[in-house]
Design brief:
The protein has two helices and five strands. The chain has 107 residues and is of the alpha+beta class. A hairpin with a 2-residue loop joins strand 1 and strand 2.
Length: 107
Amino acid sequence: MTTGGFDLSGIDMGALLAQAQSVQGQLEAAQNQLAESSFEGTAGGGLVRATVTGTGDLDALTIAPEALEGTDAETLADLVVAAVKDATEQAHAMQQSLMPQMPGLGL
């Protein structure tokens, strides 16, 4: 059987379907684990802390009182952005590590 220029005669469609279902189950498990996870990023030596969920939503932001002393608004904003970015990068790294490997389909 040829479809779109590919010879599909040597493919076990049952095994391919089972493999797809397995990957779908792994994706769902990864999504559930991420939904229950949170990640904390910091900036300014811990003066600013941001917590994001595994899905990337900002959940909390803490600014130590010392961060307000002698700091202009632009510097404080930079610290907030850095803390959120740090937490988001951690969440992204976890997402990547949980994603199932996509095996070759042998086409």
